[in-house]
Specification:
The protein is of the alpha/beta class and 268 residues long. Helices cover 42% and strands 19% of the residues. The N and C termini lie far apart (46 Å).
Length: 268
């Protein structure tokens, strides 16, 4: 099958061959993240494909990402929050996500608001009654405290409700990290001395590789979030950046132990 005929390749592995599913069977999706752009990087293709099928997709950002700048004098929190909210609205329009909510919690301080965050996520689970929940794994991808906190909130709220729906954690593969480890170090994306090792393909619950117009759509959505993505796109170039973001991979929460980490010496 050619790339043009197969714009999205997706395989979802169940507990046995008889339970194999693909991403078309995710049903109603609740997608919960820390900052606008997290969801587009990690799940933009999965969410857009679900919306294309007419499935309900509710996407939630705990914060507006108001601290996400290296130039806080030019972009004080209120100004940046507005900009990132507008950028997120544009990105969601590209992806076809009609229901995107920003909870307005404090960027960089989510761990100080556990009670509020847990209640908010619980209310979302009760309202949406999702078949599938997408969020960060316990490592938060980059060990960002806000990412880790959101993962903890979602996991705890899900457990308190009897693990209704399928909880999937975003996690890159061993191969992805082999290709991009040096780049990620150069960018300084990690918040601690720990590094994800990556997931082996056989442990993936969802394995999506975008190409063709669906990859173009995701890149267009990310380009709309220029306050966060502009430098990376300029550094890598359009083609290399598209290759970087083409994969979306998730593991079942029950396999979280398959997302090991390692410690490294601090890189100066």
């Amino acid at each position: 099958m050619s790339g043009r005929e197969r714009d999205v390749s997706a395989v979802v592995h169940g507990e046995s061959m008889s339970k194999q599913r693909d991403s078309r069977s995710l049903g109603t999706i609740l997608s919960v993240w820390a900052h606008p752009d997290d969801e587009t990087y990690l799940a933009g293709g999965v969410m857009a494909a679900a919306a294309d099928r007419g499935d309900r997709v509710v996407c939630v950002s705990a914060t507006a990402g108001e601290q996400g700048t290296s130039d806080p004098e030019a972009w004080p929190p209120l100004r940046l929050a507005r900009r990132r909210s507008w950028e997120a609205a544009a990105a969601m329009a590209v992806l076809g996500i009609a229901d995107h909510r920003i909870l307005g919690m404090p960027d960089g301080a989510l761990a100080d608001h556990d009670e509020q965050g847990l209640a908010a996520v619980g209310a979302l689970l009760d309202e949406v009654e999702p078949d599938t929940i997408l969020t960060f794994g316990p490592d938060g991808i980059t060990f960002h405290p806000d990412h880790i906190t959101v993962s903890r909130w979602v996991t705890e709220a899900w457990r308190r409700r009897g693990c209704r729906g399928r909880l999937l954690y975003a996690g890159f593969t061993v191969g992805h990290f082999a290709r991009y480890a040096e780049l990620y170090e150069t960018w300084g994306i990690y918040m601690t001395d720990e590094r994800p090792v990556g997931v082996v393909p056989d442990d993936l619950a969802v394995d999506v590789r975008l190409d063709g117009w669906q990859l173009d759509r995701k890149v267009t959505a990310l380009t709309a979030m220029t306050s966060q993505t502009g430098d990376a796109i300029a550094l890598l170039g359009a083609d290399a950046y598209a290759e970087l973001v083409a994969e979306e991979t998730f593991v079942d929460a029950s396999l979280a132990s398959h997302m090991p980490v390692r410690s490294v010496a601090r890189i100066s």
